[in-house]
User: Fold this.
Amino acid sequence: MILCFDIGNTKTACALYNDDVLYEIFEYPTAETLTTSKLADKIIQKMPQIEGMAFSSVVVQKNEEYINFAGELNIKKIVKITPNCKLNVPLCYDLSKLGSDRIANIEEACAVYGKNAIIVDIGTAITFDVVKDGVFIGGLILPGLNSAFEALNRDADAIEIGGQSLDNIIGNLWGQSPDKNNIIGNNTEDGVKSGIFFGWIAMIEGLFEKIRVLHDRDFTLVLTGGLSQALSSNILTPHIVNKMLTLNGIYRIYLNN
Assistant:
């Protein structure tokens, strides 16, 4: 078994792979300490079947914790996803600033969906990564949907949203999408929900089209990240949703190193 972690700003996802098959997956808050979590007990129960570990991390201060955890379990092979790993996709980018989750996304998308792909990861931040002719040529980084909502709620004093907490509004919004046939809100709460929800959809569609025209390529649009499924049904551009893209990419890189 191979243990893979995708350590994000807000959440961490963990997957166990057994002979190229996803065996089990867990999610927990990144702020939680792994060694004292319930997940650690579940992992320990799988020993000594676990022969290796790989992880992608955008939270640098958590790296040592995971390396030490693997050492305590006597896991022999540990792969930290970095640009120095053996990769199949050349990276035309400032490698000192390239997130390891994006590397995993790029590797997996190119292997599964072909040499011309645009990967949109919708999480705490929204990243666009462009693979053209099998080469990663760069991308875009934007605030995530929740970040935009929080900024609006914090900075726009005149906007009152029914006394609801921000968490409740976000939960309602992603749990039940606004009516796509009536995107114009007739009250502040619906206006904010519709503006952010459909505004981000229009942004994804618009940026994809601009990149496609600029580079004269038929790119495959791949969505991943925590909110990809919530937006998918309203995105008119043909696309693929793969919420396992990052973890599968981490596993793929582990096998190649």
The first strand starts at residue 2 and ends at 7. The mean pLDDT is 86. DSSP finds eight helices and ten strands in the chain.
